[in-house]
Amino acid sequence: MYGLNYRIPHSRQDSYQVQRVDKSSINQGIQGTQMIHNDRSRIDQNDHSPSPLIHGKQKFSVQSSQSTSANHSKKTSLSKPKQTQQISFLNYLMLKKEDEEQDKQIIQHQQQKSSFQQNNYFTNDLQIQRNMFNFLYVIGVGGFGKVWKVEQKKSSQIYALKEMSKALIIAKKSVNSVMNEKNILSSLKHPYLVNIYYAFQDRENLFLILDYMQGGDLRYHIGRMRRFSEDQTRFFMACIFLGLEYMHSQNVLHRDIKPENLVLDKNGYIRITDLGIARVLRPENAQDTSGTPGYMAPEVMCRQNHSFSVDYFALGVIGYEFMLGKRPYTGRSRKEIRDQILAKQIQIKRSEIPESWSLESADFINRLIQRKPSNRLGFNGAQELRQHSWFKNFPWQKLYNKELKAPFIPNQSEDNFDARQISIENEENGELIQQNILMLRRNSIQSQFNGYDLDNFTQKSEPIKQQLNNINY
């Protein structure tokens, strides 16, 4: 990632001008050459910079910031007489003018940097900063950057740090989305959500400090297990339901429930994460169509107003995937999946139910993946899921208190993620960052992230139950 003084390399026009120099100098002959020698001798008496041609070539090859003084500190012995003879006086003046203009730009950039450091966005008295954490290694990649496993230096507490590039956020026009995610996260706290602790920023990145989940995400475990047992599926879906029930009680839709956004702690309990496209419920939301097609409710795909039951549809898709090892609606594009949904209502048939699975489990999943929201389990409230026969006599209070032994325990000796899926931003993101990095110098751009910071260092640590609304478990 480039710094503040990053200079855009010269265009190909420079090399074209140098090529034209040879022809023009030959046409001008000895007279033009003599003019340059005379003029050059006068300049050398007062200026010890390299010859115009050498200087021009140096600037053409520069890929990172260099100060003007460094360029002018080189001895005139670097100049070659033959190269001096190959440049016309007109081209020399043009190159010299470019030098002067770029020197002015460097001075302006330095002044902007000094002014930028003095503004109120990134002062040195911030309580939370990047250097307060030891970055251990990358454990995931998101749409705007990476997720790190970090250790807070002072307390030795382990967290997950979500690092997001401001340049990518600007390029993808997602400032409102990341600001919305932080605001929603800071308003929620629950044992079945990945909770936020700190949020801060520097000139180039946004940072979220979150609960670290050693067990990895469900996508990783689906890749290894292919399917889960009925007891494992019921336990997982109950955990997800508790997180969703709390979010819905706070009038928040997640809208992107999928295995990648469901992570396990070391004891096998699932938590919901990634609220990037979560929204506070409002009556007119037909235009909010973001999500992952394979788990997206039909009313969202068809641009209709929607409510909490969109999250229950996704929960049903996950249950279907756990039971049969595939999603009910598949396709290579959003259009293909939508066409399948509109063409036919998928249901688990009695003949498809695996051995050792109950009819109640299939009925529960079938009622969640109903295309019509009014027919979907949970449309009339979360109690419809609790009261279904599949969860008859289920110990909800013990689950909430995490007093149950999970039927699936992730590997305890290592972090559960696929290292092959971890990579630095791809070339496309790299190009977007380079194209937009210079925009971060503007205070008007940085002001869009104003208010992102969240400091919980000074807040008292209270039992999580005291921070929750009263919900009857």
Automatic annotation (TrEMBL):
Signal peptide: none annotated. Residues 60-71 have a biased composition (Polar residues). CDD domains: STKc_Yank1 (cd05578). Residues 392-464 form the AGC-kinase C-terminal domain. InterPro entries: AGC-kinase_C, Prot_kinase_dom, Protein_kinase_ATP_BS, Ser/Thr_kinase_AS, Ser_Thr_kinase_AGC. Residues 133-391 form the Protein kinase domain. GO terms for molecular function: ATP binding; protein serine/threonine kinase activity. It holds the Pfam family Pkinase. One of its GO terms (biological process) is intracellular signal transduction. ATP binds at K172. Residues 41-83 are annotated as: Disordered. Its EC number is 2.7.11.1. Keywords: ATP-binding, Kinase, Nucleotide-binding, Serine/threonine-protein kinase, Transferase. This is non-specific serine/threonine protein kinase. Belongs to the protein kinase superfamily. PANTHER family: PROTEIN KINASE DOMAIN-CONTAINING PROTEIN, SERINE/THREONINE-PROTEIN KINASE.
